[in-house]
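Hi all, long-time lurker, first post. I run a small reading group and we've been trying to get comfortable going from sequence to structure in the token notation. Rather than ask abstract questions, I figured I'd post a concrete chain and ask someone more experienced to write out its structure so we can walk through it together at our next meeting. Sequence below, copied exactly:
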Amino acid sequence: MNANHNQRILYAAFDDEIQLPVLDITHPLFNASIDEQAYHLSCLKSARSIEALKKMPGFIRNLFVKMSNVDNSYLSGMRTLLYKLGSGLSREIKLGFRDKWAVKQTSFMGLRIRLRDLCRLQSKNLLPQLKQFPERNLCFFNIAGGAATDSINTLILIQECDPELLKRRKIEINILDIDLYGPNYAKRCIDVLQQPGERFHGLDITLNTVHYDWSQPEALLKLSLERSGWIQLCSSEGGLFEYGSDSAIIENLNHFFINSPADARVTGSLIFDRVHVNPGYLGFTEFIGVQIRYLGLEGLQRILTQTSWVLEESHKIDTIYILFTLKKAW
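-- Answer (accepted) --
Happy to help. Here is the structure in token form:
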């Protein structure tokens, strides 16, 4: 396929035959939706913007909160997916006014950068294991995974690097979530990508949905045991480490540790602590009522002392997001 803005966009049926694009971070329209310099400048200006908004009349402030599409103190998985698509990949979707406005906002570009960078991090971690162990199957456990865009795109990056690494082995994406909309869409995406002529044609990929409450992580313990001997990656982008309590994070890490192999990895995203986070982001989330955690890297390190995991590497995105990889302490 030609690497230009006219490259074909794949669509997957979702919820009563509505067609949504398959999110592919290698698509030129996805890459065109990221301008890191513009995002950085937006982050620098955001603090002043929020302060100005706070001084505006109440009805304008209420309108802004409504435009931000926050439900029950968090951004839903499918709405997050829409903002990750950006204006390019979502150009053929019939959107309401609020969503049309939101997908064009530079502030939501951070979601696309976070996804892209996490997929790069995950593929970098998996490539050596896949090369070393061609006989082992590959398993993803995606906590609060929604549409599993990070797992799917990690596979896309691995395939682009070396397509032979995914052949002749079983691949599983297990989405552990309380919401079924995102996982249902993810399943349709895998089905489309496995069609003749598409990226995953001929690959043995299974997507499983597990109804999962991260305050009760026993299912993770069982699933990991059932995939004993597989290459295992547990991830949570915009989920457990951004919204979960200390005890929930500790319990999930400890449950995954017990049955996972020695070379298992945990990846995820978290937010800078309150002292160091971008003040505009802090003001924005508090203004619209998102109940997010400002855990920071020190907070993660503190939590890890109550587990048998250690920080392997981390990557910062504009004093807002921190991406990380954990490995077993031994």
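A couple of things your group might point at:
The CA atoms of residues 76 and 285 lie 14 Å apart.
The longest strand covers residues 309-317.
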